[in-house]
Design brief:
heterodimer; A: alpha/beta; Rossmann fold; globular; B: alpha/beta; 3 domains; 6-stranded parallel sheet; 4-stranded parallel sheet
Chain lengths: ~525, ~425
């Protein structure tokens, strides 16, 4: 038994729902009790989908358990088929139905419906959401692209499949568009994108491509491996997040397609390199960044942070153990201890202890960072309604790199701004009690209050801290206000660690030396 | 599996059985834990339970909320003895971490019930080891409870813990069903002005002292979904007062009147005390009546508040209920509201969501009250919706919330008038 206050991933049947919802003409029948329909709102509310997910639930009740839940399941499958007329019917069980062992696959097969039935085994007590999505996609591919299905090579440009994009994926919609553009420029056609937007027929056409591009290993790796083994299709495994990775991705694709990438690489430059080399970005040097998310996004973010923005990666981790190896390898490169956990309290402790200047994480890390008052940007699911923006905002490709620069750097104080603040900080008009000049003389700023998030009170618990001597307090006021809070917190943390009850001038400067780099 | 309309009592009821697009009873934890800040709710269930709670409640904002899930894992399913030991370990860790907890609820889920994990036995076993904390259990599972029935089960589990109110004690009023603190205070003031000073609210704001119950208890329900708890209180001697539920000017008047009559408050005093609030409510409602009058409304089943709310919207704002769907119809408890619904209103109980959506599309109501899974899809079909869950999480009872309640229904319509995109 595991005590969970919050989880990064839902159960595996939610992964199956993500695949079914991403596709067209696919319907999922879940043997599940009342209440499991909550998962519909993930799609209709968080992703703002305008249609219900193609999922029918049996909604068995306590009184059914004594009688015949199998009949209920069969009737539900038959009704769902009659109403929705899907090409593919996925059948599975949620956690409770798994316990009553009704064999959804066998029951659905027995109905002999004019649709392809794909039974899913979703072990709820062992596995999680990403695994469920990967398994569902793999089962679909395996069923629809049998080994005897010969590839049809179409004339014209080389063709590639994009594997992994899915419903509720972090920026998948925009990544697909970006990668399509990039491949087009390179002279490669997209054969099929799956699961996102694919029909059963599209999935059956996967073997017709020359190779696969695995954009999201968490969802597509199993299917890619199977297509590799069974249909001899090579896989591009570089995830094109960041300028360097995108360039490598282009070269990998070009090599498989037998194309010279030089022209495409020259044409499709990102602004990130110059934005990063311009003098304003000097202040980014060595900013301490903590990174946590799904393994793929976390590892990619670490590379961009270190190589393309000049940050120092002080923490790196992921919540999906299936991909822990990739994170361990990357962590070794940055000389940090990998944090592989699905306990957000452990992540919070790590962030609090490391005191990074920037957190790149999921929505949970955003909340943690907010509590700890550290700037943060979201890089990975689990995502929130605001992570599905109206505008085009990819993470992948050269435009994706531009997006990364903006979204990671904007939470930080700008370089020029930082410089000016330091220069003018002693002017009488320029202090933290003065309001912005454009609001006119005599304007006093409002008292800063913590803005509660989505209507619920955010409780910031004040730790027991050492008292400050008047001299130290005065000295603290000389520190620019935008770093004063951090200086205060660091000093107090240092004092607590050293067992100092009263913070004087010496403590303040000892702490500065301790945290200085 | 739809039955034809059955003539039953005064109102024909359409009973349906099929896919239900509603939350399970675990969701009640979201408001119960806020009402009782010294209580902790430990769901014994699966990853799905944890995911449901965080999805329904948007839990990410809390560092350590006062609810959690003990997730059953593969190795727990190997043997029950092991699972009880595991539960003891989890509870031990939890209570060590949170010494402020006075009451711990072990909340049963679908998986815990299917594997027949006896949480009431676990609660009494754990209680023996931990005298400082009250340990209770109830079921919030989807195979037994729908959404607000979770609160019913929780309150029913608390009833045996309530101290005895002496048989010869003067009458005391108990208002049962979770209300926001601000609404409780408003009602308490009104009762006090009428001369009813002895008022308890159940659940209380803290679990250290629980309200007493006995034959002198006069029980007034603030929520229509706590039938089991009401019967448990009746079995301890409480006398149930029935009235319309306190929504709008009329509903609140009727509800307060039931208490006034039971406590022998004279009519003049009653009228004088409620007059200012009633007037405020009427003025507030008038502002929205123009927008809402004549508009057709369809309720998908959600919280069991549907019948009283349909009464409020039709009687006080002139809306036309097309279908009033409710997950469970307790005819005794909502009798007064049910009787006040316009003739010809279809009341439906249970759900087959696809068939019901067919009826929504056929009726094309001006407003559909539904859950979060259905709202955007219906909007995309050109049908205005109101999220049902907001009706559970917002203060909507009493005179001074009447305008806010009407506004919740008027806003989606007003917004559609505003938008030019």
């Amino acid at each position: 038994m595991q005590l969970a206050v919050w989880t990064y991933e839902g159960p595996p049947h939610v992964g199956a729902m993500r695949v079914a919802t991403a596709m067209k003409g696919v319907h999922l029948v879940l043997h599940a009790p009342q209440g499991d329909t909550y998962a519909d709102l993930l799609f209709t509310m968080i992703e703002r989908r305008s249609a219900r997910p193609p999922v029918t639930y049996t909604t068995f009740e306590g009184r059914d358990l004594g009688s015949d839940t199998a009949t209920l399941f069969k009737r539900t499958v038959a009704d769902a088929h009659a109403r929705f007329q899907p090409d593919v019917l996925l059948v599975g069980a949620s956690c409770t139905a798994e316990l009553i062992q009704d064999d959804p696959g066998g029951l659905a097969e027995a109905l002999r419906l004019p649709a392809t039935v794909v039974p899913l085994e979703l072990p709820s007590y062992q596995r999680k959401e990403h695994w469920g999505a990967a398994e569902t996609f793999y089962r679909l591919v395996r069923t629809l692209c049998p080994a005897e299905r010969a590839a049809v090579r179409l004339p014209g440009r080389p063709r590639a499949n994009l594997l992994g994009p899915c419903a509720l994926g972090f920026r998948h919609r925009d990544d697909v568009e970006e990668i399509r553009k990039l491949l087009d420029m390179l002279g490669v056609d997209v054969n099929v994108v799956a699961p996102l937007g694919a029909t059963a027929d599209d999935v059956a056409r996967l073997p017709d491509a020359n190779f696969n591009i695995l954009l999201y290993p968490e969802i597509g790796a199993e299917a890619a491996r199977w297509l590799e083994q069974t249909h001899g299709m090579p896989t591009v495994r570089t995830v094109p997040i960041g300028v360097g990775a995108t360039a490598e991705f282009v070269e990998e694709v070009a090599a498989l397609a037998g194309i010279d990438p030089t022209a495409a690489l020259d044409a499709a430059a990102s602004r990130l390199p110059w934005w990063s080399r311009s003098v304003d970005s000097n202040y980014l040097t060595g900013k301490r960044v903590f990174i946590f998310g799904d393994a793929t996004h976390a590892v990619a973010a670490a590379r961009v942070a270190a190589d393309e923005l000049g940050f120092e990666v002080v923490g790196l981790g992921c919540y999906n153990r299936e991909f822990a190896r990739e994170v361990r390898t990357a962590a070794e490169r940055y000389g940090v201890k990998p944090l592989i956990t699905d306990d957000h309290l452990e992540v919070e402790d790590a962030i609090a202890a490391l005191q990074p200047e920037l957190v790149l994480g999921t929505q949970m890390e955003r909340h943690i960072a907010k509590r700890l008052r550290i700037p943060c940007a979201v890089i990975s699911s689990p995502a929130h309604v605001q992570d599905f923006p109206a505008r085009h905002s990819p993470q992948m490709g050269f435009e994706g790199a531009n997006v990364l620069f903006d979204t990671w750097v904007h939470p930080l104080v700008m370089g020029l701004e930082e410089h000016l603040l330091a220069m003018f900080r002693d002017d009488p008009e320029f202090h933290d009690e003065a309001g912005p000049s454009h609001l006119g003389a005599g304007h006093t700023p409002p008292v800063l209050t913590v803005v509660p998030d989505t209507g619920s009170a955010m409780v910031v618990e004040a730790p027991v801290v050492a008292g400050w001597t008047p001299e130290a307090e005065t000295e603290l006021k000389k520190i620019p206000f935008f770093v004063r809070g951090k200086a205060r917190r660091n000093t107090e943390a240092f004092a607590a660690q050293q067992g100092i009850a009263r913070i004087d001038l010496a403590t303040l400067y000892d702490a500065k030396a301790f945290y200085g780099r | 599996m739809s039955a034809p309309r059955l003539a039953e009592g005064v109102q024909p009821v359409l009973r349906e059985r099929g896919q239900r697009e509603v939350f399970c009873g675990l969701t009640g934890i979201v408001w119960l834990h806020r009402k009782m800040p010294d209580a902790f709710f430990l769901v014994v269930g699966s990853r799905t339970c944890a995911h449901l709670l965080q999805s329904a409640a948007g839990v990410m904002i809390f560092a350590e909320p006062r609810f959690a899930t003990a997730i059953i894992e593969e190795r727990d399913l190997a043997g029950l003895a092991d699972m009880n030991a595991e539960l003891d370990r989890v509870v031990g860790r939890l209570l060590e971490r949170r010494p402020d907890i006075r009451t711990l609820f072990l909340v049963g889920s679908c998986p815990s019930e299917v594997i027949k994990l006896d949480l009431s036995r676990a609660a009494s076993r754990l209680q023996g080891e931990r005298p400082g904390v009250r340990i209770l259990s109830y079921s919030g599972s989807g195979i037994e409870t729908t959404f607000t029935q979770g609160e019913d089960a929780c309150l029913a589990a608390m009833v045996p813990e309530l101290p005895v109110l002496a048989a010869d004690s003067p009458p005391r009023l108990m208002v049962a069903g979770t209300l926001p603190d601000v609404v409780e205070d408003q009602f308490r003031r009104l009762f006090a002005e009428m001369g009813i000073e002895q008022v308890d609210f159940f659940p209380p704001r803290g679990t250290a002292t629980l309200p007493a119950v006995g034959p002198s208890t006069r029980l007034l329900l603030a929520q229509p979904f706590i039938g089991t708890a009401a019967r448990a209180l009746e079995s301890r001697g409480a006398k149930l007062l029935t009235a319309q539920f306190p929504f709008g000017a009329e509903g609140t008047t009727a509800w307060l009147h039931a208490a006034a009559r039971a406590f022998g408050v004279d009519e003049m005093t009653f009228r004088r005390v409620i007059a200012p609030g009633r007037e405020r409510a009427k003025r507030a409602l008038a502002r929205h009546a123009e927008k809402l009058a004549g508009k057709r409304i369809f309720f998908m089943p959600d919280s069991q508040l549907e019948v009283p709310l349909a009464r409020f919207l039709s009687v006080e704002l002139g809306m036309v209920p097309v279908e009033v769907g409710t997950p469970y119809l307790d005819r005794t408890i909502v009798a007064d509201d049910l009787a006040a619904l316009p003739e010809g209103t279809t009341v439906s109980e249970g759900q087959d969501v696809d068939l019901q959506l067919d009826r929504v599309r056929a009726a094309r109501p001006d407003l559909t009250v539904c859950g979060l899974g259905l709202a955007n899809p219906l909007e995309a079909e050109g049908l205005a919706t109101k999220w049902a869950i907001e009706l559970v999480f917002s203060p909507i009872h009493g005179f001074d919330q009447a305008g806010d309640l009407a506004e919740l229904f008027a806003r989606p319509l007003r917004r559609r008038d505003l938008l030019r995109v």
